Fold:
Amino acid sequence: MAAIRDGNKAALLVVDVQVGVVKQDWDTARIIKNINVAVDKAHKEGVPVIWVQHVNEELVQDSPDWQLAPDLQPAEGDFHIYKHYNSSFEQTELEDTLATHGVNHIVLAGAETNWCIRATAYAALERGYDLTLVRDAHTTGTIELADGSKIMAADIVRDLNIVMNWVSYPGRANRSMAAEELDFVIPGGGK
Structure:
């Protein structure tokens, strides 16, 4: 059983909104606008903002594709985590950063919904954090299967939004919520 995190301090985690990740994703301009809404709210409320960037053979650190999308502007004092796996927790400083700031509630946005966002969401819940998925601030690309059928990006996003409202873990609050509705004070982000 996971240790349930005491307290009520939130952090905004923005995962992999990098040039090479989102360049062909669904509705990227709207998603980035909503990420900026969440970031602005976090900054105004004194909530830590943590930017996560993936590093691999396609996203070489400091390369043009590795950079954050140009419309995102981290503020001085924001935190940066670099990862090599889908989950933002695996072999990174994320848990130490969260512990240093007494965070027990993660507000999550970014890309790719079906890979790094899903893996990070489940990892957060499994580690005892409350979780709010910003339902209009994560994206992915459409998946084309070998038989020619497609899983549309909008459906992948919708699926995870529904899951985060219904999956349950003992002692934790989780949900999905629009960027405009975010509340960083109440566990799970609800009003």
Observations:
- The chain has a mean pLDDT of 94.
